[in-house]
Amino acid sequence: MGRLMALSLIERGHKIDLYEAQGPQGEGAAAKVAAAMLAPLAESAITELNVVKMGQYSLKRWPQIIEKLHHPVFFQQEGTVIVWHRSDAPEARRFQGLMQKTHALLPSLSPAQMLDSTAIEALERELVPKFNAGLYLPLEGQLDNRELLTAMLDELKSAESRGQLTLHWHSPQDLSRFQSAIEPHSNQDPWVIDCTGMGAKTHWSQLRGVRGEVLRLHAPDVHLSRPVRLIHPKYPIYIAPKENQIFVVGATEVESEDRSEVSVRSSLELMSAAYSVHPGFAEARVLEINTQLRPTLADNLPQIQVNSSKLIKINGLYRHGFLISPAVLDCALEWIDHQSTDLAHELGLNVNRP
User: In sequence order, what DSSP letters do the residues of 137-191 get, joined into one string?
Assistant: First the structure.
């Protein structure tokens, strides 16, 4: 969120000081660990309609953002395939019902399509014969989060070389230092924009971390061309294919701020669930097993806080960071320009004036 904001403000002619508590590679950020799936309809089964609206908006914005970057970023919009084992058909019907309710409220979303074995084979032939029923969610997408972080880093370094930006790595800051430099109602003071995620706990009430655990695998024997989700009452997972036979596998969500390494049980559950989707994962090589905290507010929804002292705080993107960040970005930029945002009202994003 901070890198997107900085690049957008530079593009508008602003001079930026960017402070980052850790280094340039995104250490300590959920953005580096995430699968970066852009799946508003699939996520509608577990989130609110306003998040779905933000996700739908952001799907159109991501190609525009990526097009301006000089470093290539993998992006696709080939939809999502959802499958389940026969014993989990009741859970699949429940999931489908939730998505149907979302589509009824937001008909501009492409509806889910039922798949039989022939249709599954046409989309992802390696899922047959293990699965003979599924759902296809057209137009959903994904991007490569690490390529995006690298591309934005290159742009930031280039802007610094042109004198538009000063980068301060390994520079944790106390927000009070900047607040004290802003005079109320002054037109001359700079804007202060806080995108520090979990670093904002000292000054953002009810902010908590939700632990997530993710595998990164190299699987030459697996050929999936789009994200696949497995419906399961205990081990629901997603498998997000990246370039060069790299797959990101995850789904665990734990109400804990424990940043320690992934447990043996969690690792086995993720690996077993992946293997149950495709036997080719048996010979996959484990590149990484990562854990990170998702910054989450009490209602699990994002929020922008603004005040009259030219301070903006953005937080609470939870598990939807890549899904909704362009929408949150554009709402914040609109506020900077006009001290109001019709877009936030349209999308249902909470802009709070404490």
Answer: ETT-EEE-HHHHHHHHHHHHHHHHHTTSEEEETT----HHHHHTTPPTT-SSSPP
